[in-house]
Amino acid sequence: MRPPDGTVCLDVQGAQNPHHHDRGIARYVAEHVRALHGARTGMLHSVLMNPSLPLTGNLSWLLGSGLLRWNCDDRRVARRISSLPAVYHVMSPFEDGMRGKELWPAWARSSQVKTVVTLYDLIPLIFSDHYLHDPIAKARYTARAALVRAADHVLAISQATANDAGDHLEIPPERITVIDAGASAKFANMYESKREAEAVLGRRFQLMRPGFMLYVGGFEFRKNLKRLVEAYARLPHQTRASHQLVIACSMQPSEVELVRSWGDKEGVSEDQLIITGYVSDAELGALYHACVLFVFPSFYEGSGLPILEAMSCGAPVIASNTSTTPEIFGDLDGTFDPYDPVSISRCIADTIDSPATLAALIERSRRRVAGYTWDAVAASTIEAYGIVTSRHKHGVVVRPRVALVSPWPPERSGIADYNARLVNELSKSVDVDVVIDGEPARYATPSASGVKLVRSASYRAVSALQQYDRVIYCMGNSAYHRHVHELLREHPGVVVAHDVRLTGFYGWLSAQECAEDSNKRFAQWIEAQYGPRLPPAVRLGGWPGWETQQALGIYMTAEMQAHAEEVFVHSRHAREVLELDRGVLDRVVPVALLPFAIPDVEPRMWRPPGKSPVIVSVGVVSAVKGLALLISAASLVAQARGGVKLVIAGPGEKQELEHWRRFAGKFGSDLDLRLTGHLPRADYDRLLADADLAVQLRTISHGEASAAVADCLAAGLPTVVSDLGWASELSADVVACVPSDALPAGLAARIEGLLDDQEHLRSMSEHAQKFAAANSFSATAKQYLHSLQLI
After folding, report:
1. By three-state DSSP, how is residue 68 classified?
2. Helix 758-774 vs helix 707-714: angle between axes, to the nearest 10 degrees?
3. Within a 10 A sphere around the Cβ of 697, how many other Cβ atoms?
4. For a tag on the chain, would you pick the N or C end, based on fewer CB atoms within 10 A?
5. Over the stretch 728-787, which tens digit does the pLDDT of each residue have?
6. Are 671 and 631 in contact (CB under 8 A)?
């Protein structure tokens, strides 16, 4: 079983580490890639490198293959699902210095892409007191461990590592494949004789004598060099005189000095302890071929690549009796307790001067290393790829996952209510994590399966690891969008701009950030987004009034656009605001037009208006809703018709409601005005069903679509709107428009004309309901999914 051609992408940053390109993981990654490429299956899609790291020599052989790419986190790739590989293989998930998005870019977190990781070991977790005592280091390691845990499949380089993955990360066995490690033929075939290898070493290491014992590895806690030196010191003087201890690894001068001090303390002379520092591959191969014994005292290894390399060169090997050594050896001959220098010394002494023991270990090296080839590693890896892609094709269908960052009921936000309906429809095709600003217990429990609430703080911790196909930010003009604003700045995504004038939000934010001088903070926001485009009096004066905002086109969307991958809006009006408001940015964010969803309601039973018609205006009570014009016009209609009932239904401050009651009192008793405040849903629906006409005005547009108008259309209620923003783009069959600067007499004439034309009202009602059905939440959700390329 193998994956289809062109379906596997390899992330090879682990081979590019400029500080450890000669160490075990870098060597493993390079050899692994070479073996996969050499398998000639055609499965490779690309090989991704980090552009901020060097193209080291261990990868240069890939030049000209056409496979090398930079791993730039180009989020536009996520919109080209068909071009994505089926498998993304992170070949070193714990690589130091890499950000999460460099190891696991946004496009790779698509549900269309299966993630495979190579797991070398969990040594920092097993020895956490030594490696993870620093809280920052622990947090970083924990995040990477979560990446491994979240992967679709894990390639363990030994059975010991596979066992650790199950024990410490709780990864089930069916998601793990043991691929082992390989012994490079490069070292095995490098020299024809020990004498040839000794000649190479003699050109650089004049003090090195034939008969030396060898250690190859790194300088760190678990490599156990101090006990190795102590064990060597316990050997008889004659043995040390005949067999130098050669430590081959890169060290800082201070580290060399430390190792020398260990030897001095134990009575080991300088000519008995050879510290090579960095060695080339040719010199390393010579060391493997020329040593009389290879000693590996490590406390713990994920595999033990130096052991395999030494064995491939015919060296007799003794090593710790822990972790992977028994697995590689196939027995416990030539093993010791790495924590006991006496045990290490005894094993060396029993081996190094015993020709029969050395011969038996050389034979074991020859026999056991034959099963550790890079071709075998590649074959096991390809089989694992096949399991993953087969599971993807024939197993349980993996639904796309979307993060929706938004207000949520019971927050008094129209966007919260809107999205509560929208996710019910989205959840029929995708899983949705709704990212909220507080504890989930404070919010309404989602009614649809596949929808869950996630705290913004939790989202911060897991967003780089969750396989979200898309992240959607629902931005509006109120305090309920604080977490939307904050997370968008940290994690770019698609923005649904329900409002394109954000001055209200920034005014609130300014008071939060600088309560003692919110005007000054707001002026800083203005300056940052507009600079010289606005006169100094506005830039320095703090909060501009509505008239100034309208006159100077102050929308404050530049920051939102700077962090958005794409913006969805509901009107041409809003789209053009964004295009003009961005000014000269260093990028142009795509802006797409999506319909505004309209709820399903029972069909309206048509009846002609009575003698005293009922006119309604619904939504938040505010002067920008044209209430002064509406009340003045309604009073004129009431005088002409002998009575009109005007119901203004919606939440508002007590002082605001009282203001409009006093305002209506100026016009006499013919107008029956009722301000209801917030209505329960059943009462609200009944009001729309009983009304004869809705009048929904605006004096200024924030670029928003009106949920209040949508409710009226869904109810089949004939509706008058201002010729402004989203409402102005509705068909004349669906709504009746009046100029945004209409006078009371003009609006009154339009209302009277409609009330007297029953056929026109009936036609508007029918067209409104057809429009509502065509733009239902179900239909709109499909438009969202199509635009997000999730269906």
Report:
1. strand
2. 110
3. 22
4. N
5. 999 999 999 999 899 999 999 999 999 999 999 999 999 999 999 999 999 999 999 999
6. yes
Alpha helices per DSSP H over 185-252: 185-188, 194-202, 225-234, 237-242
Per-residue H/E/C for 265-319 = HHCCCCCCEEECCCCCHHHHHHHHHHCCEEEECCCCCCCCHHHHHHHHCCCCEEE
Six-digit token string for 422: 């929208």
C-alpha distances out from residue 522 to 415, 497, 547, 550, 653, Å: 24, 21, 17, 17, 24
667-679 as b/e, with b when 16 or more CB fall inside 10 Å? beebbebebbeeb
Six-digit token pair at 498? 């329900």
Angle at alpha carbon of residue 576, lines to 572 and 579, rounded to 5°: 140
The strand order across the sheet containing 564-569 reads 451-455, 431-436, 401-405, 470-475, 493-497, 564-569, 591-593
How many residues appear in the chain? 791
pLDDT of residue 790: 81
Helices (H), 51-193: 100-103, 123-126, 128-131, 135-150, 159-169, 185-188
Angle (CA) 470-473-474 rounded to 5° is 135
By the 10 Å C-beta count (0-12 exposed, 13-18 middle, 19+ buried), 4 is classed as middle
Stretch (H or E) spanning 518: helix 518-530
What is the DSSP pairing of strand 8-11 with strand 176-178?
A: unpaired
In Å, the largest CA–CA distance within the chain is 124
pTM for the complete prediction?
0.60
Which string of b and e fits 170-188 if b means at least 16 CB within 10 Å? ebeeebbbbbbbbbbeebb
Q: Per the structure block, which two tokens stand in for 625?
A: 């809703």
Count Cβ atoms within 10 A of the Cβ of residue 605 and give its class: 0-12 exposed, 13-18 middle, 19 or more buried: exposed
pLDDT tens readout for residues 330-348: 999 999 999 999 999 999 9
Q: How far apart are CA 279 and CA 273, in angstroms?
A: 16
Strand partners, 274: 246
CA 281, 284, 286, 289 torsion: positive or negative? negative
Burial of 39 (0-12, 13-18, 19+ CB in 10 A): middle
